[in-house]
Design brief:
The protein is α/β, with parallel strands linked by helices and 279 residues long. It has a single domain, classed as TIM Barrel. It has 11 helices and 11 strands. A 9-stranded parallel beta sheet has the order 5-2-1-11-10-9-8-7-6. A two-stranded parallel sheet has the order 3-4. α3 crosses α4, α4 runs parallel beside α5 and α10 crosses α11. The longest helix is centred in the middle third of the chain and has 22 residues. The N and C termini lie close together (11 Å).
């Protein structure tokens, strides 16, 4: 059993830095695992060096070289795409799966995406099942998990999240649980975590500030980043206890908004993990 603390590259977005700088800073802060974000094609901010996302049109071994040069490993690949738009998500996820395998990541994190207004209620899950059934053929060949995150209208509730994550009977369809998104969606993040444990392969360690909890809970389906872990409403001792009792191994990938929050998150989570892992 091993639980490690990683960092999602969103922490460097506030400084308008490129991918390589985000990796360097993550390593400098003491993280051994990172969660890169990828995109299709070319876009101005990343090309100009003002954004941390990495184009999948680039050679994945270039990303791998950057990771290895900084002695960090990928916990997963952030590859969010609208599952209810198969014309977009099927080729995107297939490309992301192959990219993840090339850099040594065994998880591709995604979510249902924003629901198209023209889809009827009973069609949503049918379309997502098609997308997942098609892309899981690739995932199984490459030994990569597709992990569904609670982040939109259908997955914000644990029941909906589990329904999406079981649309296809594949061992490579799993869950990336986001504690902050679950809380903001109106769920009990601890009971939700317990419910998804059999499918849990990756965690977004997202804390929610008291101010955001008071103003946004129940009104949104998630948020890009949270505050420093240990400085918001999420009880991390309780989260880690649940994982420890389940003998779960994996990475808590911190999603926060600044390098200082990243540093504080690593300090706070490590202080809880060290005694917990000693027992």
């Amino acid at each position: 059993m091993s639980i490690d603390v990683g960092i999602n590259l969103e922490f460097i977005r506030c400084e308008d830095k490129p991918f390589a700088e985000g990796i360097r800073r993550a390593a400098e802060l003491g993280f051994q695992f990172v969660e890169p974000m990828v995109h299709n094609g070319r876009e101005l901010l990343s090309e100009a060096g003002y954004f941390h996302s990495f184009s999948m049109d680039n050679d994945p071994l270039e990303m791998k070289e950057i990771l290895e040069a900084n002695s960090v490993k990928p916990s997963g690949l952030s590859a969010h795409t609208p599952l209810m738009r198969p014309e977009i998500s099927v080729p995107y996820l297939e490309k992301a799966i192959r990219f993840a395998a090339a850099i040594g990541a065994n998880v591709v994190n995604t979510d249902e995406g924003i629901r198209p207004a023209w889809l009827e209620d009973d069609e949503c899950f049918q379309v997502m099942r098609y997308t997942l059934k098609k892309t899981l053929q690739i995932a199984e060949r490459y030994g990569v998990f597709i992990a569904i995150e609670p982040h939109q209208s259908l997955s914000k509730k644990t029941e909906g999240l589990l329904r999406i994550a079981t649309l296809v009977p594949s061992p490579n369809l799993r869950i990336n649980y986001d504690t902050g998104n679950a809380f903001l969606g109106g769920e009990d993040p601890y009971e939700g975590l317990k419910a998804v444990l059999p499918l849990l392969v990756h965690i977004h360690a997202k804390d929610i500030s008291i101010r955001m909890a008071e103003t946004e809970k129940g009104k949104v389906t998630g948020t890009p980043v949270g505050c420093a872990c240990g400085e918001g409403v999420i009880d991390w001792t309780r989260v880690i206890q649940i994982l420890h009792e389940a003998k779960w191994s994996g990475v808590l990938s911190v999603e926060c908004g600044t390098p200082q929050q990243a540093a504080d998150s690593l300090k706070n989570l490590s202080a809880i993990l060290q005694p917990a892992m000693a027992h």
